[in-house]
Amino acid sequence: MKVLGFYKSKKYLQRVLISIMLSMFLVLLSLSIANTYILERSVKNNQQESNLKVLSQIQYNLSYMNEIITHLSNFVYKDNILIPMMFDARLPKMDLIRGYQRLNSILESSSFLHSMVVYNSASKEIYGTTTPFLLDDGVTKSAIKRWLLNPPSPHPTSKLIPTSLEKKNGMIDTFAFIVTTYLKPFNPNESAIILYVKSDWVFESLQKMNVSNDREQGELYIADQDGRLYASNHYDSFANEPDQQSIKQLLSGDKKMKNRQSGNVIGEISGKKNMITYMDDGIRNWTILYIQPYDKLMEEVRMGLK
């Protein structure tokens, strides 16, 4: 009987010990999960705050760029030598020569300009400054004319418009800035000057901010009102339509739900979790984005818990 009692007592102690160990395991697991959640939330909040500060600076830089281009465009549009190119139905040869000389002079003095185009609504003629425009048998001229006069929807004026003069496959090399008498969508019955701004000049600000803040974990982008992404690397990371639509839906959903123009959203893109910090530009209907792979962002947190 003593042996039986000892056996039962030992079995009971084993159960108690197992219960204690299981309880300790559950407590440690709960603490670990809670600690991971707290750390991840802290990292996300700190990262979002840091990202928004950078996006605010980029927003300011883009506004400053817009101001520079606006001042230049006003000066160019009122230039007496260029006025005949814009409005004369029959342009004398000497006025044409003087006009080209003035366009080249402006280009040489503005390092951020890729090229310039003058559209004369009276003659429906376009005058351009680039070598391809002058020497490729009208290919570049026809492309610009189609873009300007037959767009899917009227182009806005006095705003940077992503476009391409030389690259293909959706890549951009310039931002067009259309200048007319009125600040309204471009009408083919109005004469205009189009300043083509180098895309690298616009994106240089983004890249410098990315490098200076040691942000190797993600990429900075500009999204237009249709959700299309642009970057200095020509948005290689999210080039396909489904990815861009996913990003657009994530942003629009967050903006509507929280009624804000800047913030942070986490969601899946191409089956991978990403953190997107965004801020509306406020001038051009653009949104500035910083997209980071979530696993990369939390790598240090998870390594620290191992």
From TrEMBL:
Q: Which domain of life is it from?
A: Bacteria
Its recorded name reads Cache domain-containing protein
- What is the originating organism of this protein? Paenibacillus solisilvae
